Amino acid sequence: MTRGRSLTTRLGSLLIVSVLMGCAGASEKQVPLDNFTAEEIYKRGEYELEVGNPRRPDTAMRYFSEVERLYPYSEWAKRALIMQAFAEHRARKYEEARASAQRFIDTYPGDEDAAYAKYLLALSYYDQIDEVGRDQGLTYQALQALRAVIEEYPDSDYARSSVLKFDLAFDHLAAKEMEIGRYYLKKGHYTAAINRFRVVVEDFQTTTQTPEALLRLTEAYLALGLTDEAQTAAAILGHNYQASPFYEDAHNLLLKRGLSEEAKGESWLRKIYRQVVRGDWL
Fold first, then answer.
1. Which domains occur in the chain, in start order?
2. Is the sign of the CA dihedral 134, 136, 141, 142 positive or negative?
3. In which band, very low, low, confident or very high, does the pLDDT at 56 lie, cut at 50, 70 and 90?
């Protein structure tokens, strides 16, 4: 009985290899899978991911979904679900990848691969972040999902990668504010421009956009004749980013008007100055 079962297993494995090497394209999708074991179907999916077209992992996705359909309560079905999410993400089927990853999280919340499922969920938002001019809804969702990975799995490699991506996504939001602010500034809508640059300085202080925001505030306030605010913005810029070319530009703008970088007045910028320069947060 044991020898017969072993022989059947070996023959089944040989059949798998034969199918893998001999079939391609649409004809491969017609191969019935009902007579294969969960492990065999799963390994066919892995094979397609490794040696198939990396940009078209549709065949691999089919195998992983078939494992779930034919063997829904098996260990291989659990593995197939996380691999299906991975394959869908690789295929840039982001909504499907999110659905599969979330299904894994809901079904196997305590599994060791739950951290990776959460990371895939976050990536499915992050990798959809397009150029700055697009709607930023996905960026906010990416930040929320990345934060979940960081907070729930702080010691994992996924958390470390999520921190880097979180910072980039955060910078992306600030860049969007800067783009709109520069547009208003160019059109001479100085108050509207100031409102955008203020968001960057107040809400996105840790991003790479802050030095330019302070320069543009200096420029906009000077255009409005609000020299106290312009001098204060330049003072913050000079204190925190003196090596930045944006500081040199702000310094020259003030110099042309006989002004210098100095915290003056009682505007919102003076409060920022007290916080970031003097450390007066209370």
1. 1-128 (1.25.40.10), 172-282 (1.25.40)
2. positive
3. low
